[in-house]
Amino acid sequence: MQKYILSQNKNSNVEDFQMREQLINTFKHRFTTYGYKQVRTSTFEQYDMYGSITGTVNKDEMIKVIDSSGQVLVLRPDVTIPLARMNRATTDQRLFYILDVFRQSIEQNEQKESTQAGVEFFGDNSPEADAEVIVLAIHTLKDLGFTNFKIELGHAGFFKELIQQADISQNQLETLQTYIHSKNLVEIEPFLKAIGLADDLRNAIQLIPMMYGNPADVIDEAKKIIRNESMKQVLQNIIAVYDVLVDYGVADSIVLNLGLINNMDYYSGIIFQGFLDSIGKPVLMGGRYDHLGKQFGNTIPAIGFAFEVDYLVHALQQQGKEIVEIEPDFIIKYDKTKQKAALQAAYRLRNEGLQILTYLVDNVEVNDATTAIVNYTKDEQQLITQIKSHTFASADELVSQCLAIKEEK
Amino acid sequence: MEQITLALAKGRPAKQTISLLEKTGEHFPELTEESRKLVFHNLDQSIKVIFVKAVDVPTYVEKGAADIGIVGKDNILESLADIYELLDLKIGKCKFSVAGKADHHPSDNQKLTIATKYPNIAKKHFKKKGQPIEIVKLNGSVELAPLIGLADYIVDIVETGNTLRENGLSVLEDIETISTRLIVNKASFATKSTQVNQFINQLKLALE
């Protein structure tokens, strides 16, 4: 028999896919229990749609295609924006998706597609809605068997409000954001001094990266740098969401991170990201985006998040989680003279929902110690299990014997 | 308590960091002058140290193979790794500079050719200035490039400037100052907060 190199890899690919399927089933089940309905969006989107709205995916990262009429399209770089655009709901709507997204970045050139599993909750902008979405993320991580993870909770408004009081250029703002993003305390101080901000404002900004950790402590710290009514409201919002999370009983999984800045500028309220102990990047990201819909003429508030499925698969593999390998229930070996009877029996057994593999005995040496074997030879019809062997006269008899064995298992 | 993994850049930074750690009371009995081991532990096994090549430290930390790394700012900048940078150890100080022959004057509208070991840093610097460049990536003896006409200028680390001077080059512009930094994996910072913060505070004390 000819061997292909591919066949050596096949196993791992099959396993990889089985693991993904298990994950996806977990997502579907858990998202459904919170009342979410599955949707999909088109693989091709208008480049202009992404180009015209502010604060979305970096244009360089999108993968562009040109159709026959010369229109520029992009391969779906994210799901939230198309959903926000398509959504015409005026009341509560809960949607989820499990879709591939396509992006290219200089740092990760080889990785152009990744799978996202996410939810979007339209219509409610209460702290209870925020908390419910975060709890859904935590609940799903627990379903997947992760125990050591943290959700970092922040607010898009906190930094924005603070920085609005500072007179700095777009370039300086970007540098500042990189420093905050990497909690670079070493360079942030000289940088802010060089800009020449007022001392109290500078101190407040400098404190932001380290506003991290135990929610009660961080809230106390944050109160000290509140400078106006809108910052006060932002903090009130964070406290309100956290209180609901405490009532859900998930406070252990929450840390506050007021230095959290998401690259997607459209977030307007609570933002959050989740970390597992074994993966260096966030495995989920999300937040409230009440104003994104306005760019498409609908004003419904919304919050959502998405899991990076590839990271989760990687984490599960690292933890050595094994796939439950599905073995065939029965193997039917037959000899050419009994082909009709054997194949018809196989059809009937499959119809009963059993997994059956058939082999013409001349072609192959079947050596499977664990699976029960049905033998159709010229002289006898036998069902051999590990324990004993039965003979059977008709297909009816075989089906009932097989089902009985399956039942015992 | 859960163990934390510390990635150190082989060579001088590792030695300096280890002696800092010894000052804080952490001892590494398996580590001796002649040892070639790449992995060793402190007395109570709470810290695992791994020795890796300096350029790889940010990668180890970003991927979570190490929780904490101690490495020069040059390697952090070049790696573009998404990590937290929490502490300046104030050792290994030097700077990134643009250098070239003093009498070299390329015409204004010409694309500059830059030889460097650090293409990302060079690109970023000239992008900020709006100067189009072409990069020649070299792995050593970068000073040679302008001398034999391979490049207009170089972007490299300058410590004393001796190598530059001896080769007839001079610093034209400083890009940024560099020193050894402590970097932390973002997930470790979230999931092993206590251990990570304890380690950082210990090191801060030793630095004072």
Automatic annotation (TrEMBL), chain A:
Cell compartment(s), UniProt: Cytoplasm
GO biological process per UniProt: histidyl-tRNA aminoacylation; L-histidine biosynthetic process
Cross-referenced InterPro entries: aa-tRNA-synth_II/BPL/LPL (IPR045864), HisRS-like_core (IPR041715), HisRS/HisZ (IPR004516), HisZ (IPR004517)
Pathway: Amino-acid biosynthesis; L-histidine biosynthesis; L-histidine from 5-phospho-alpha-D-ribose 1-diphosphate: step 1/9
UniProt entry tagged with the keyword Amino-acid biosynthesis: yes
Binding site residues for L-histidine: 78-80, 103, 116, 120, 266-267
Known role: Required for the first step of histidine biosynthesis. May allow the feedback regulation of ATP phosphoribosyltransferase activity by histidine.
Family according to the record: Belongs to the class-II aminoacyl-tRNA synthetase family. HisZ subfamily.
Protein name: ATP phosphoribosyltransferase regulatory subunit
Organism annotation: Oceanobacillus chungangensis
Lineage: Bacteria, Bacillati, Bacillota, Bacilli, Bacillales
TrEMBL record, chain B:
Class of enzymatic activity (EC top level): transferase
A family per Pfam: HisG
ATP phosphoribosyltransferase catalytic domain residues: 53-204
GO cellular component labels: cytoplasm
Enzyme nomenclature, EC number: 2.4.2.17
GO MF, any single term: ATP phosphoribosyltransferase activity
Function: Catalyzes the condensation of ATP and 5-phosphoribose 1-diphosphate to form N'-(5'-phosphoribosyl)-ATP (PR-ATP). Has a crucial role in the pathway because the rate of histidine biosynthesis seems to be controlled primarily by regulation of HisG enzymatic activity.
Domain notes: Lacks the C-terminal regulatory region which is replaced by HisZ.
Oligomeric and partner information: Heteromultimer composed of HisG and HisZ subunits.
Protein name: ATP phosphoribosyltransferase
Native organism: Oceanobacillus chungangensis
